[in-house]
Amino acid sequence: MQSRMKWLKLSTGILAGSLLLAACGDSETTDDSASGETTDTSSEETTSSGPVEITFWHAMNGPHQEAITELTAEFNESQDEYEVVEQNQGGYEELSQAITAAGVSNELPTMSQLTTTDVPELAMNELLIPLTDDFLTSNGFPEETLTDIYEGFQGSSEFAGERYAMPFSKSTRLTFFNQGILDEYGVEVPTSWEDIQSLGEMMVEAGDDRVAMGLENGFEMEYETMARQNGAEFINGDTLETDIDSEESVEALEFLSMMFEEGYARTAGEDGYFSGPFGRGESAMYIGSSAGLAHVEPVAEENALDWGTAPVPTFNDNELTLFAGNDLGLFSSASEEEQAGFVEYINFLLQPENTSQWAMATGYVPIVKSALEDPEYMTFLEENPRYEAPTQMLEYGISSPVFAGYGEFRNAFTGAMEEVSVNDAEPQTVLENLQTETESIIESNK
Hints:
The chain is of the alpha/beta class. It has helices at 4-11, 13-21, 62-78, 92-105, 118-124, 133-138, 143-148, 151-154, 179-184, 193-205, 220-229, 247-261, 275-279, 293-302, 336-349, 352-362, 375-383, 388-392, 406-421, 427-444, and strands at residues 52-58, 82-88, 111-114, 158-159, 162-163, 166-178, 211-215, 265-267, 283-289, 307-310, 321-330, 397-398. The strands form two sheets. Strands 1, 2, 3, 6, 7, 8, 9, 10, 11 and 12 form a ten-stranded mixed sheet that branches. A two-stranded antiparallel sheet has the order 4-5.
């Protein structure tokens, strides 16, 4: 049994995980009827002659739950050696709480969706099996599938040099645009933040109550993207050295602060998420998650909005986007048979036709490159062009590094951005304070 102190530290990442993933689709809606029953899911050696049971906890709700249920059923029907039993645990926060409780009581499932904030503490408590290339291939995972995974997803759940989860429900940031407003001002879809500033200037001069750009209340991903586009490393995944208060980082946050001050941009405020205000026509653009497409569509249709999507804007002419979402981890209490079943299930999910099926149903993005050559997916993109922009960013998307204390860092990061957008704090001071706090968090968790 691990120390109680470590488990108390684990719980501090729950809030940050839910904030980071709030824009990934499921956090905007809650299907109470989908909350899974809590059962004894401790991993035991299978003694019957039937298939090995693989218990799978997740936080998918609504259409996303329907999609994972369908894929799981297809996997179970495709072979007779394993049976995956998927169990919804509520939302991301509830899932993290359930994992924490199950870890303490030694009643973990075989596998689970994991947020980036879950991984470091679970790994330090030795509750996750490292998913090395050797472990995967020795259990039948094809090497060609490993090399087919987009590079930006490869490190999304790496901690201390080891992979602890496999990418699955991944999203990228996405620009949603209101074609009617763009036509009104005679501009093309902006491709840079400078273009957005120009549009904002025109709208303010015209006395337009709408804004050029809308951002989620938690816009730290947009700021980090801009800082990295501007040349900041932010946090080095290998050395954990930081340059959060560098000239490049400060310049990016000063630009965003100016956008707020001049009325060119605003956050969602009481709406919580900007999909609602955008769908009601309150902004020319907004940046959200690709998995939020399903949330924009009904509001936009209700308001007869002419809208589309595009890659995120560049800052200093550099293309870069951050990946979000979550991965699938294997708990160390799993038997050897269950471990093999986990690998078989992951291999199934990452086959081109299956990862593209998941993308079509949910707005998440395909994990492997060959999915873009899947005929059904190619036809889908032709018929649904709003889903194409996320795929255009897969080659240059990256994952932020995770480290011990990552959940605490994300909470501090979110608070720093609120200081700028809500309290009009000076960017240089905010980032100097965040730099100091981040260094302290990293040092105290060594």
